[in-house]
């Protein structure tokens, strides 16, 4: 089986399409043939993140595919199954799991059968949200002094996703102190002390999860 892939030579460098080895599934792996892949991870290609990858590599995460082969220990899937998966390629730093190729590896625990859904629809399901609540934490207090690279990342996030023109989306986001807002419109303040450095991010996240269980996403904006 000839494999073709979108190779990324390094951050900020243009991608190229060329041949790639066809990976072999290990224990718990599925070798899949891509049908639809969700577009994303452009910040990695543009060199706008601090992700440390071994180049050249293949990126891409969310895809809907047909199972070609299964590794040992795989019991829920068989060749020919139509499935959707998060390949976790960037997180694994393993190009074999990059979604932007004809044949890729995915893990069985990150994969589900797509039933009657189309491949295009299934590729977008992992980020659809399903009407669930999304948790935001925002603030701009003086003590929130993150390293410049981190501050730049959050600024880009605001530019991309929190455009002030989208008033319906951001009307409940406050920038002068910490608030927690859910998509159902309820807002609750939390007694947070955010100190200098990244070490506090996990501490804040743990506190938010204890105070307001059910949130799916945390966004810290200095």
UniProtKB/TrEMBL annotation:
The keyword Oxidoreductase applies. Keywords: Oxidoreductase. Residues 1-26 are annotated as: Disordered. One of its GO terms (molecular function) is oxidoreductase activity, acting on NAD(P)H. Signal peptide: none annotated. The keyword Oxidoreductase applies. Residues 28-114 form the Alcohol dehydrogenase-like N-terminal domain. InterPro entries: ADH-like_N, GroES-like_sf, Trans-enoyl_RdTase-like. Belongs to the zinc-containing alcohol dehydrogenase family. This is Alcohol dehydrogenase-like N-terminal domain-containing protein.
């Amino acid at each position: 089986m000839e494999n073709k892939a979108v190779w990324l030579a390094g951050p900020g460098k243009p991608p190229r399409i060329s041949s790639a080895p066809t990976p072999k599934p290990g224990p718990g792996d599925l070798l899949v043939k891509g049908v639809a892949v969700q577009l994303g991870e452009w910040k990695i290609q543009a060199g706008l993140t601090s992700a440390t990858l071994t180049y050249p590599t293949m990126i891409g995460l969310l895809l809907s595919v047909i199972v070609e082969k299964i590794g040992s220990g795989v019991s829920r899937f068989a060749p020919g199954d139509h499935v959707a998966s998060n390949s976790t390629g960037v997180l694994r730093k393993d190009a074999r799991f990059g979604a932007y190729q004809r044949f890729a590896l995915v893990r069985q625990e990150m994969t589900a059968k797509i039933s009657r859904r189309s491949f295009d629809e299934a590729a977008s399901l992992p980020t659809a949200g399903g009407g669930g609540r999304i948790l935001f934490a925002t603030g701009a207090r003086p003590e929130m002094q993150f390293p410049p690279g981190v501050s730049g990342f959050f600024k880009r996030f605001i530019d991309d996703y929190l455009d002030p023109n989208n008033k319906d989306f951001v009307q409940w986001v406050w920038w002068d102190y910490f608030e927690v807002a859910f998509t159902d419109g309820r807002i609750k303040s939390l007694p947070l002390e955010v100190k200098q450095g990244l070490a506090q991010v996990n501490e804040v996240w743990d506190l938010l999860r204890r105070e307001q269980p059910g949130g799916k996403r945390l966004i810290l904006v200095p």
